[in-house]
Design a protein that fits this description.
heterodimer, A: little secondary structure, two-stranded antiparallel ribbon, 2 helices, elongated, B: alpha/beta, Rossmann fold, 2 domains, seven-stranded mixed β-sheet, six-stranded mixed β-sheet, 12 helices, globular
Chain lengths: ~90, ~400
Amino acid sequence: MAEINANTPWQDLTIGGNIYEAGNARNFKTGDWRSVKPIYLSEKCKQCGLCFPVCPDDAIPVNKEQKREDFNYDMCKGCGVCAKVCPFGAIEMK
Amino acid sequence: MSIRERLSGNEAAATAMKQINPDVVAAFPITPSTEIPQYFSSFVSNGTVDTEFVAVESEHSAMSACIGAEAAGARAMTATSSNGLSLMWEMIYIASSLRLPIVMSLVNRAVSGPLNIHNDHSDAMGVRDSGWIQLFSENNQEAYDNLIMAHRIAEHKDVLLPLMVCQDGFITSHSIENIELIEDDLVKEFVGQYKPEHYLLNDKEPMAVGPLDLQAYLFEHKRQQAEAMRNAKKVILEVSKDFEKMTGRKYGFFEEYKLEDAEIAIVCMNSTAGTAKYTVDRLREKGIKAGLLKIRVFRPFPAEEVAKVLSHLKAIAVLDKADSLNAAGGALFEDVVSGMYVSNIHVPTVSYVYGIGGRDTKSDDIEKVYNDLSEIVKTGKIDNPYRYLGVRGDK
């Protein structure tokens, strides 16, 4: 499917906004909706693994060693669930 | 050879649906269109058609089921009237904006309230800006013919818009008249197989329908709909031409009846045109140069073409069987006069709201309108351009 963005003229848009490919939710940057931002304090993190399963939007990347990395702010809506479950105060909402 | 029959308007619509044999029909009964899904469900039970009939619990669901079916790649049809269409209203806009060529048989009835089951056009007028193609039918034959042409128009790649075929509740839906039916195999060939380019059940191409469409996109998608509606004009004429080749019955945007040399004329839609033709003939016998313009295609509105065929007249009356309650004229009146104004054609034109709630409109009433027009031609004066025909209390 050809790239569509906010500069595409009407003649080049698909009708009705149809999307002719699967797995396109990752192209939708829901991080735009965020009003508060989680900050990852790596020095306090024990890699206990409680935070990333509760993220409703897959905004906490986990690497091959099963360790969490810094937030993916493209997807994080700032709901704060991760900060709430962290027992070590390693996530601060700002 | 075509088949000579005598059918009511509802029977004619159901017969057209039987011959079209759509994949899905989802409908809920409402007077006066009830018979259409009723007859059709008997075709389903008898095995005359292969259609999946969805007996829904409301019209909102009927239209929703049609939307789901059509998006999946099926050909879907429905029928309704009045408040049934009102209950569909939300989904009516979804159907057209998702560009799903659903075909509906709309048997026109007054929208409540107060409660009324008889004919006027307030249901169709309520959705005139919804992006549906609207074809109007004078009698059972036209309701049938318009339905046979409907899918070819709606499903055309340059159009892809839903389409409703209107006919007058009770006046045509329940009166039995002669009709010429087309043979089943000819209809099948004419309507053809539905082959959507994109559809949900295509396992080769996963797709999403109806995504969130915010400030950056909705305007462009509406612009596309507007273009499709413009394209529909050309497609309607092409399909009508093919239909004429098959049946000999000629259709355009409108029918001009003794209009060419007329001095005064009425513009109206649906069954009233029949009464008006009778009246025109009577007046012609008296040497009055009366004519009629019967609109068939109301959406898209053929503004330029209407203006052109009315340009030579000395006075025009536009009859609306629905009041826009706008302290100005009816919807058809406004479309006609704005079309003329834009084409820089200026003919004295008056609006008549008539026949509300099934109020009988007789040839004497129509004659009164022509008499009023003669008076306007004679005096050159229009005291009140926004008139009512047949209401108690107004002259």
